[in-house]
Design a protein that fits this description.
alpha/beta, 16 helices, about 575 residues, globular
């Protein structure tokens, strides 16, 4: 394959339409707030500028280009800093921009499209991918992230693996001298609002599920969630003689053997191990396919026969066999906490039974992570390993933190629900990958004041309370690496600035910072010229470099600027 030249991506346009996000479509966007990475292009028709969740459009207007067009990618030219970046018109920022010049270098990775490998494990449109990867390389992106889907690799027969397309992809990345973050994805892709790629669980697993649907997570009404296997079968030999964790281990071990050269050459910098729906360590408590809409509290997902057996055993061990049941007053997917007897202030969540149930429910989550990460350490000895936690921030300012409780995080206002997870990650030297670093509390209040959301508070609690020391930012103090990614596509400066502030905390005496940031995701929209210029600027600042237009606002006069028909253009 010839990868010696770069061609102009047709999507790199000098003009961009204005996209509006209206309030009625907001719930679609929110249904994937902390879910798996979005597909190539827009996840939803109204998903542009979703980084900030605004109901009005944040226009990014490009001034008309001067001179003739070129067939070379316009972003490769060194003159882009002095000229092209000055042509981007942005809405005024609410706060002055911070200068990140000289700050620590934070590597930036970009997630590849969900459909980059097809169901036959073949690389899709490699020539276009090479062009895009070269463009990313030209702005010093450190590497890319790719999901290795269980439903593709082990699709038809147990322990028969096909890694062919992934190996071709890895070779291209290697030749371009980029790094790889690889995700062991043991969940279904698709089924959520706006997904344009569907990758189910392996066919042989779904055949087992037809005769034994209890291998899937189940809600109180008996609805099955086919996105991933229930943790109740972690140690049950229901998968053609193997337990679920044995299946996961065999898959990871096969990958390590088949892709050995990319480990030895240092191309693979990190393995992220999928631990639940969307690859995240959580219960599938807010599935859009079951009617959930933001900011619903979600539902407990423990009603398959295997988890109910575990609950029964725990209740009997406690001496209260009548506690072997889920809460009967916890509402439904779209309830608010105050509408339920369980989650309301002073509700049953804080009763003797409530504390017992929530302890058991959250311990099942922690035990699952422990089992899978222990085997991942064996399979990938000597390789950096990460686990992903979702940013469930809605109802964070209520006492019960209901949305976190249904997702498996026993984190009400009077309890630290992340310390046990931190201890488990530290035990195996696993990095924490946390989402929603681009969200701001103010925007959540403006759009959904009833949700009492606080993504900023959650970000800082997770990066702080995640250690046994329970002090601010103690994750770094106990040497737990903290990486992050944005929860929704982000193309605007204000969203990038929020990511930067969380990546490199101001006034930290030890200069602690994220170990890496992964951008969601490579798409035709990102590659549009105005969006890519903003992304390039963001990468430079993550790398601790200076930018030429710091704190230059579109309503201020600048000696290099002049106005043409209300748009900014270079002299």
């Amino acid at each position: 394959m010839d990868i010696s030249s770069i061609h102009l991506n047709q999507s790199l346009s000098s003009y961009a339409p204005c996209f509006a996000i209206n309030a009625s479509s907001f719930s679609h966007k929110q249904s994937l707030l902390t879910s798996c990475r979005v597909s190539f292009g827009l996840r939803r028709p109204n998903d542009c500028n979703s980084c900030r969740f605004k109901s009005s459009c944040r226009n990014l207007v490009m001034a008309r280009e001067k001179g003739e067009k070129t067939e070379e990618h316009p972003l490769i030219d060194d003159s882009v800093d002095a000229e092209d970046e000055s042509k981007v018109v942005r809405r005024p920022l609410k706060l002055p921009e911070r200068d990140f010049n000289g700050t620590p270098y934070v590597p930036v990775y970009v997630m590849l499209p969900l459909g980059v490998i097809d169901m036959n494990c073949e690389l899709v449109d490699p020539d276009s991918l090479v062009e895009q990867l070269r463009i990313l390389k030209s702005v010093n992106v450190d590497g890319v992230m790719v999901d290795c889907w269980w439903g593709i690799v082990e699709a038809h027969t147990p322990q028969v693996y096909n890694w062919s397309g992934y190996k071709k992809l890895f070779q291209i990345v290697h030749e371009l001298e980029l790094k790889l973050q690889v995700v062991m994805s043991f969940h279904e892709c698709g089924g959520n609002i706006g997904d344009d790629v569907h990758i189910p669980l392996p066919q042989w697993v779904m055949e087992i599920g037809q005769s034994n649907p209890d291998i899937y997570f189940t809600d109180r009404e008996g609805r099955r969630n086919f996105e991933c296997l229930t943790w109740g079968v972690d140690k049950e030999r229901v998968l053609r003689g193997r337990t679920a964790v044995e299946v996961y281990f065999d898959y990871m071990r096969s990958f390590r053997v088949e892709c050995d050269v990319f480990f030895k050459d240092g191309v693979i910098s990190e393995i992220e191990v999928g631990l639940g729906p969307c690859g995240e360590l959580r219960y599938p408590s807010y599935p859009a396919k079951h009617g959930w809409r933001y900011p619903g509290i979600g539902e407990f997902q423990c009603y398959d026969k295997y988890l109910m057996k575990s609950l029964s055993n725990a209740a009997e061990a406690r001496g209260h066999s009548f506690w072997a049941r889920g809460p009967d007053n916890a509402g439904s997917y779209n309830s608010s906490p105050h509408e339920t007897g369980f989650f309301r202030d002073g509700g049953d969540y804080d009763s003797y039974y409530g504390r017992f149930f929530l302890n058991w429910y959250s311990q099942v989550l922690a035990d699952h992570g422990d089992r899978v990460l222990a085997l991942a350490n064996l399979a990938f000895e000597g390789t950096n390993i990460a686990a992903k936690l979702s940013g469930i921030h809605w109802w964070y300012k209520t006492a019960s933190h209901a949305a976190e409780l249904t997702a498996g995080f026993y984190n009400p206002s009077n309890r630290d629900g992340y310390a046990s997870i931190a201890a488990m990650l530290k035990k195996y030297g696993v990095a924490l990958n946390f989402t929603c670093v681009e969200l701001r509390t103010l925007d959540q209040h403006e759009d959904f004041p009833e949700a009492l959301a606080d993504p900023e508070g959650l970000v800082w609690q997770v990066s702080a309370d995640i250690s046994i020391m329970m002090v601010l930012n103690a994750a770094w103090d106990v040497s737990i690496l903290v990486a992050s990614e944005n929860a929704l596509p982000c193309y605007d400066r204000e969203g990038y600035n929020k990511i930067l502030e969380n990546a490199k905390p101001r006034n930290d005496p030890d200069g602690r910072h994220l170990s890496a940031f992964t951008y969601l995701r490579l798409s035709s929209l990102l590659m549009e010229r105005h969006n890519f210029l903003e992304f390039k600027r963001f990468v430079k600042r993550m790398h601790g470099q200076s930018v030429p237009d710091l704190q230059v606002f579109p309503n201020e006069k600048h000696p290099k600027f002049k106005e043409i028909d209300g748009q900014v253009a270079a002299d």
